[in-house]
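Notes from the 1:1 (GR / supervisor)

We went over the backlog. Supervisor wanted to see one worked example end to end before approving the batch request, so GR pasted a single chain during the call. The sequence is below; no edits were made to it. Supervisor asked that the structure be written out right there so they could see what the output format looks like.
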Amino acid sequence: MKLTLRLDPKGLRRWHVALADRLARRPGTHVSIEWKPGGEAPPSAVGLLFMLERLIYGLPADDTWTAAPAELARFSAASGSADLVLDFTESVTNADTRDAARTWRITFDGVAGEVAALAALMHSRTPVVAISDAATGAVIVSGRPGTETAGILTLAYRDVLARTTMLITGALDRAASRVDATAPANPLDTITVARFAAKSLARAAARRLYSLCYNAPHWRVGWRFVEGADVIDLRAHPKTGWRDLPDDRRRFYADPFPIELDGRLLLFVEDFAHALGYGVISAVEFGGTGPVGVPRPVLDIGSHLSYPFVFEHRGAVWMVPESVATGTVDLYRAEMFPDRWVKEATLLAGIEASDATLLQHDGRWWMFATVRAGGAFSDALHIWSAPDLLGPWRAHRGNPVLVDIATARPGGRIVRRNGKLIRPFQDCTDGYGAALGLAEIARLDDAGFAQRVETILRPGPQWPGRRLHTLNRAGRLECIDGSATARRF
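Structure output shown during the call:
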């Protein structure tokens, strides 16, 4: 495949070089460069802001914004007709779209060039990234990237570009990920940059002051015994509210997964000790009036574990905890339930996958998780399938099936209800775990995935706080979790 990148020489950035390198590594792909001057130049204050952030936050030398024309010298100039042109400029004309080459436009909020992406970030949101056919205007793939570092432009910009690269490679692999979202491009000028810098510094100071007084982050688990309809039926918090699972402020509990087995109700949670600095998996049994004692550790591998997806299958109890730190998705089996677990298999390796959620459907196993791949943790949904729990697990040909910070990241077990598959997800638009959503899975097969968002559930009078990001139920026990505050003294 002859692939041409159409670039503005005055807007060349190191991320273009990284993209060209990545595309050139695709089997049978020859990458060349075509230069087309034009487009909007960002204010010089943007470069100064990147330098300031490197000093304040101790960031390494920038690998995205820096101009690097010499590094593209190894790619030949475009000659002859390309099979595909990736256009990063505003220079597409009718002549460009009538020749033999196909041309795809890469835009941020409908505008070519990274100025629109920077403007969106400085207006406290991420842009909608779209790749469209220049001849017809038809969108091939689109996504709404996320970032965990919205207040630091260098890192947020990196996250957006990493997800842009994922969308480009997905489009080349015939992925069809799209989001139903549009946003007008924001203006970008020196005043906007100065305001963002001032707010960023103020936020950094506030975070520092908060961390001196409080353990952060600090989560809490809410529980209740269901009498009648549950949250999936109600599409709302129960009027009776939730009871907190107590903690000692030196640790927090999160990601609640209850399970009912042989008449016993147990709750598995991420147990994060602030002094230890990583999470383990703990469990507590529930009696007729609530928890019996406090959660006790049942799985500690020496690095962070969370999201203990626990389930029963063929007479055994299994768990797939999140283990991003190891770069694997591992399956554990209860050797002595609930206190002793053995690693049975590594289902996926060499991957930073968050909140792996399994489902048996149409005679197969399916796994949902968000994959970081150099960007944010919560915005790129990938799916795998297997004929058996132990595998082999095969990536969906449409991965990423969804790039959307608002609806991608799993938020609990997928539930069958009234003939539907209801998928809880985390809405991280306003920050990690800010809200909980429910979507019906409208399509799940080898050729595609689709979902319809039905409910967004936020904190409120029945669940005070600022965050809500997990929903699970087993038997009578229904659980959620959200943020809390815990003073250091």
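Supervisor's comment: The chain has two domains: 2-210, 215-483.
Batch request approved.
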